[in-house]
Amino acid sequence: MTQAPPKAQPENPLPQRRPRADSQRNEEAVLEAAKCVFATSGVDAPVREIAARAGLGIGTLYRHFPNRSDLIAAVFRREVDACAEEAQRLAAEHPPGEALMRWLHRYTAFIATKRGLAAALHSGDPAFDALPAYFQAHFEPALGALLAAATATHEIRPDVAPYDLLRAIGNLSTASGADGADHTRRMVGLLLDGLRYGAGAPPPKAAP
Amino acid sequence: MTQAPPKAQPENPLPQRRPRADSQRNEEAVLEAAKCVFATSGVDAPVREIAARAGLGIGTLYRHFPNRSDLIAAVFRREVDACAEEAQRLAAEHPPGEALMRWLHRYTAFIATKRGLAAALHSGDPAFDALPAYFQAHFEPALGALLAAATATHEIRPDVAPYDLLRAIGNLSTASGADGADHTRRMVGLLLDGLRYGAGAPPPKAAP
DNA sequence: CCGATATACGGAACACCACTCCGCTTATCA
DNA sequence: TGATAAGCGGAGTGGTGTTCCGTATATCGG
């Protein structure tokens, strides 16, 4: 009597049906729409606006992201992934020094779009708790590889840790106000010149 | 015909009646209530909560502060005033070195309550535009006087600018996370020890 | 190929927010 | 001590994030 009937019991622990294709497509559409809306209107943009841009109902959006902060966190992770992957691509397509410089500018652009998000990070919402670790786990190896390659060719000095550089650029980018963007660009440029300052020797092979 | 009637025209440019006593009392009550509510619930606390704590209607609150950000800015200015005034009080009641250290800890406490506000400052709301200047205009002379006095008695090194110290403590206080408060306290302590490091000589009179 | 059914969709409805409006109250002053 | 302008209170407005549930549809056993 306490046993389940012989059949017609849906297996709870292992749902067998593969996820619906439209569901995956819609989640993708929401993320893409949210990325655009956050970029243009900031992270405080209404959820309805995102749903509208994705061409979906609000209910659908909330099915995929139970609340606003989950959506913000998902978009953030997605952009971290994209930026970190670009490090590999740049390393494959350019010489080490140039790949490094290109990526650091790419990273600066990434940080620049995260002004509002930095504030949200300190809001205490548990959805954001894991983001700093995610950030570090992806960017530190990405930059580490670029730095190692550029160090090996003596294009940059060898004594700069990836994490320090990530943080320094992040902090420089918090400068805001009238000429905030300009000030950031100049200061980051100065920092990157500093990277090249103590290099061993410009050409690939030159050792006494 | 186009002229005004000979009398009974209220003078527009110079309102003669002195402001009503209850109005001043209520404005004061709103500021005090807002200070408490912001401290306990953060700057995102509902306006209704502040009005309720002040024992007033919402309309009354909005009569004094046309919108939320005006109220936040007013509370901020008020706390800046209180903290800056305390510098004078401490200078009068303690020897220069101790007055300086006590005030810097007071300032650190002030900064600690401004986590959410720092985010609001970058929100683009024009009500906050003048706050950084207000901040600097009050704190720089306050700290400058304390530093000068402590430098004169050789209790601290003479080469630290007030503005740098204010900013450094502010930036150290942005460290958040698991042990954010603790980390801030340790780092600020270290910074203040650094202040004493290069002093000329401990006692007031000792010159070779 | 074709129902059966779990899964996903859509948007009306809800709770809460900042902010407005206007009839009523009250402090000020002649 | 009125007359009257200034101030007060809170219901109302418009907009937000989030929930709920009837409807539509992709998947899969037959």
Per CATH, which architecture of the largest domain in chain A? Orthogonal Bundle
- Give the number of DSSP strands of chain A: 0
CATH class of the largest domain in chain A: Mainly Alpha
Poorly predicted runs of chain A are 1-13, 203-208
User: Which oligomeric state applies?
Assistant: homodimer
Total separate domains of chain A: 2
In one word, what is the shape of chain A? elongated
Biggest sheet statistics of chain A: none
Query: What name goes with the CATH superfamily of the largest domain in chain A?
Result: Tetracycline Repressor, domain 2
| Helix-and-strand structural type of chain A | mainly alpha
Strand content of chain A: under 5%
Order of helices and strands of chain A: HHHHHHHHH
CATH topology of the largest domain in chain A: Tetracycline Repressor, domain 2
Separate helix tally of chain A: 9
Helix content of chain A: 55-70%
Mean pLDDT of chain A: 85
Overall radius of gyration of chain A:
22 Å
Distance between the termini of chain A: 87 Å
Largest interface: chains, residues each: A-B, 8 and 9 residues
Protein described:
The structure is a homodimer of 208-residue chains. By secondary structure, chain A is an all-alpha fold. The radius of gyration of chain A is 22 Å and the shape is elongated. Chain A has nine helices and no strands. The first copy, chain A, has helices at 21-41, 47-54, 58-64, 68-93, 96-112, 115-121, 131-152, 162-172, 180-197. Chain A binds chain B through residues 115, 118-119, 122, 132, 171, 176-177, and chain B through 115-116, 118-119, 122, 132, 171, 176-177.
